[in-house]
Amino acid sequence: MTSPLDLIRAIHDISHPQLLIKNCDGIHTSRPTQSNLASLPDNAYVPAIRPENLGDSEFKRRHGLKYAYVAGAMANAIASTALVKTMGQNGMVGFFGAGGLNLSQIESAILEIKENLGEKPFGFNLIHSLVDPGHEMATVKLYLHHGVTLISAAAFLRITLPLVYYRVKGIHKNRQGEIITPNRVIAKVSRIEVARQFFAPPPEKLLSQLVEQKMITSEEAVLASQIPMAQDLTAEADSGGHTDNRPALALLPTFIALRNEAMATYNFKTALCVGLGGGIATPESAAAAFSMGAAYILTGSINQACVESGICEDVKKLLSQAEQADVAMAPSADMFEIGARVQVLKRGTLFPVRAEKLYQFYKNYRCFSDLPPAAQKEIEDKFLLTSFDAAWQSTRQFFLSRGSQQEVDRAEQDPAHKMALVFRSYLGQSSRWAIQGNPLRKMDYQVWCGPAMGAFNQWVKGSFLEPHTNRFAAEIAMNLLTGACVVTRAAFARAQGIELPPGAGLFSPMPLKEIFNLISSDSM
Question: Which of 56, 186, 271, 377 lies at a CB distance of 3.0 to 4.6 Å from 232, suitable for a disulfide?
């Protein structure tokens, strides 16, 4: 009889298939042969499952990936050039967090990443700008100018003109008559009505506008009617930052059904893919995503505590200590007036409480001078660290520097809008204070974070990955993928009636060198 320890080792030996032979004295393990395979179904067969076997092969082929693993964009370069480069160098893809940056900063990142990665995969974020559509179009033009052929479209409530322009510019047919679309979009979505738009061809009205403005040709517009806005779509569950807190178990099957509906309706020539993000932080959650049919997995919160992250060391330490309950929803700087919210870390910061106070004051008072004197004093002394009038002058200068004269004019006529802009300024700067590690603003740090962070910290507790200084994004990715292989193999065995010993389906973090030894080709 195979000992419990040997049985666990057999399940963890992911590069080799195993035959689990059941007899009167217990379970024996063996490598499959023609003779012992013939005795099935009395025995249980566990296939070899390596990290590169997980996910959708079409998705990996489309983006030049070895592994179906995406490091999601985090704004203000938290998803840094270093993060994007390490993912591309390790057979995965990362998206640079371009949201909140000016065009010069984005361009510098493009040049650095292209110089370092060459033909290896990388992408950039395009976040919908409700209050500044001009910046959205300028960002698209910058991407097209520099040949950025993969973007992550996030926070879109509808398809916009800049997004359509990016998607269809340069579309053509090759000599075989196949439609070639140079620019690819991976949409990050949590709402059904938005997912439907991305799985449909570009809106005819927007295509007509682009033709009229001579931004695309009529031939490009005709071909565009035969492609989806996004070939790939990430079902964004309970994530950090902007989120609808959707449960992954309900969201992913719904989006897969929408994909199937779109394929039947539009008869696209190449497959649509649905991945899952939000809550992916352990081997079990990664395995569950792939088992449910996710073409790929996307991680976010856990990468923020990595060495490559663009956030300060103090915040990385806070993140590495967070538990699942250490997150809260707070008002967002963008779309503040309509009550949009983001999921943030509440451990070690007063930001969620202070942000909520500002939003409630905005909702209930017409102008700052109407607030109770004690509230005015608290905001000026503890939040703004200056007078409201001085904060407005600083905010006014910011909007003027971005060419937003209309915002300034409106604010000077409408005291409620002036209050909103000043409060939004505090909310917007709070994320930068966290990135910069401003010690005077430690209690105001806004750190986008989902409950996945707590799950990850619990998994790595006591391992070499517990200190944030040891967390490298590609190493974490390989641990999640390898662990998902172990979890899936254990599930195969259990589904065939094998009673596994405790720990057979558990995977503890391993250094990258040990993982590569485990999955190396010469061990097969």
Answer: 186
